[in-house]
Amino acid sequence: MRQTNAPLRSRAAEPGPRGIAGIPGAPALGVSSAMVTTASPSNLTTEDAAPENGSFYYDYEYLDSVLFLVCTKEEVLSFARIFLPVFYSLIFVLGLGGNSLLLVVLLRYVPRRRMAEVYLLNLAVSNLLFVVTLPFWGISVAWHWVFGSFLCKMVSTLYTINFYSGIFFISCMSLDKYLEIVHAQPLHRLRTRAKSLLLAALVWAVALAISVPDMVFVQVHEHPKGVWSCYPDFGGHGTSWKLFLRFQQNLLGFLLPLLAMIFFYSRIGCVLVRLQPRGLGRALRMAVALVVAFFTFWFPYNLTLFLHSLLDLQIFGDCQVSRDLDYAMQVTESLAFLHCCFTPVLYAFCSRRFRQYLKALLATVLRWRLGPGPTQASLSRGSESSRLTAQEDVTGLNELAQGSAVGSLKQEVVGSH
Amino acid sequence: MASLQTPLLAVLILLSVMLQATDAGPYGANVEDSICCRDFVRYPLPPRVVKDFYWTSDSCRRAGVVLQTVKDREICANPKLPWVKKILQKLSP
């Protein structure tokens, strides 16, 4: 009998009702009636085999063939019950702290009309909503889904929406830089606040569309009695759905954004190298760092996901490979989640202007601590002066554009097109 | 620029509509999902040695039922076979 503290959330839809298996007190047939078996399979059908002789014979030794045995995952589950809650808590704390700080700075000190920060702001919101779901999954792994039916749908939907929107907003930021530097045209402005807002709204809409099945299929299941879990029920088409979902995640969550970023930043790099503006090295390093960071966070996870799909298709692997991939999945997925702690740091804190905002915030907090003083004046002066500079610099790419290079850069770009 | 933005967005929307599906929560938190049967036992087991059973994940390639023997071995069986059905019937309340 499976212990109830180690629930196996079996997902069979057909044939037969769920949740039968683990019911405490299910009849333990045959325990008392020891049976003698030989290696001959012909004996197996004889239910009335001699019930005496050595108790160690009552099972079927010839079944040692590993093929028939289910691939049990007790060690993987024990590992998950420790590792995931600890790691999720860490990401929750780091992500909540970092993104709240980012949000406060953006809302308080960045002038409203700046558009580059639209995506960063949305990214911060997306990351915040994402890390909020992590404690739920942590508790769900360590214990079981204790939050009920509504939260199951809600948290799953939130998870999926923000899983994708975070990645999409990072891609949007590369698109934004691309438009700013490569397609800079003084007369016909492609980057307007309205367009940024529209694109951000679109990202949310697409992410919402991707999460629709969560709202539909995800529900709580009780198995065994008293142990709840929260997962989607696709009826009898589990395998195809699972493969579909994983390839979708590989494609939408990794491959397309990565290709977009590589395309946008390499075009930016080409233009910068041609124009040789001030601060070129720093800008190029920044662009490379953003792409490399995205790749580092997401590649191991997507590789594991892909190998899992191959395993499910039975292209390779055995039970041990399956277990190893389960470990790999837990570790690489958790590492990928770290992106919502580090991406804001990378994007925001590398910007000189953002550091100024942050200093201003810290100064306010410190002076407010020491006693309410006239800090507001100096702060508004600071943001006033930054408002005067013509270019937005969120990624640090554009710090080069703040100087006199801007004019000539734009002229030349326009001329070259 | 609309010439580049529009196709990009169109592709994104198209893909998301085409592939409208998702899984709940992190994969790492769903280890049970990958507990599957790779093969089924070829010979019928006497019902008395099976004390319990559970279904493997719906997302397994082979829909299987795991028979737990009195010796705590977990043996994969094909739920479509008559002898398996009989055992399941017997164990179901």
Q: Main sheet of chain A: which strands, in order across?
A: 1-2
Number of domains of chain A: 3
CATH class of the domain at 43-92 in chain B: Mainly Beta
Identify low-pLDDT runs of chain B: 17-22
CATH class type of the largest domain in chain A = Mainly Alpha
Subcellular location (chain B): Secreted
Keywords (chain B): Chemotaxis, Cytokine, Disulfide bond, Secreted, Signal
GO biological process, one term (chain B): eosinophil chemotaxis
Family (chain B): Belongs to the intercrine beta (chemokine CC) family.
Short description:
The complex is a heterodimer of chains A (417) and B (93). Chain A is an all-alpha fold and 417 residues long.
Structural commentary:
Chain A: It comes from Cavia porcellus (Guinea pig). Chain A: Keywords: Cell membrane, Disulfide bond, Endosome, G-protein coupled receptor, Glycoprotein, Inflammatory response, Membrane, Phosphoprotein, Receptor, Transducer, Transmembrane, Transmembrane helix. Chain A: Pfam families: 7tm_1. Chain A: GO terms for molecular function: C-C chemokine binding; C-C chemokine receptor activity; receptor decoy activity; scavenger receptor activity. The complex is a heterodimer of chains A (417) and B (93). By secondary structure, chain A is mainly α. Chain A has 3 domains: 2-75, no CATH class; 77-218 and 237-349, Up-down Bundle (Rhopdopsin 7-helix transmembrane proteins), CATH 1.20.1070; 353-416. Chain A contains 12 helices and 2 strands. Chain A has helices spanning 74-109, 116-142, 148-181, 193-210, 212-217, 238-275, 280-312, 319-337, 339-348, 352-370, 376-388, 405-416, and strands at 218-222, 228-232. In chain A, strand 1 (218-222) and strand 2 (228-232) form a beta hairpin. The longest helix of chain A is centred in the middle third of the chain and has 38 residues, at 238-275. Chain A is globular and about 70 Å long. Chain B contains 2 helices and 3 strands. The longest helix of chain B is centred in the first third of the chain and has 17 residues, at 2-18. The relative contact order of chain B is 0.14. The radius of gyration of chain B is 22 Å and the shape is elongated. Chain B has a 3-stranded antiparallel beta sheet, with helices on one face. In chain B, strand 2 and strand 3 (74-77) form a beta hairpin. Chain B has helices spanning 2-18, 82-91; strands at residues 50-55, 65-69, 74-77. By secondary structure, chain B is α+β, with helices and mostly antiparallel strands. Chain B has a domain at 43-92: OB fold (Dihydrolipoamide Acetyltransferase, E2P), CATH 2.40.50. The interface between A and B is large, with 108 and 73 residues.
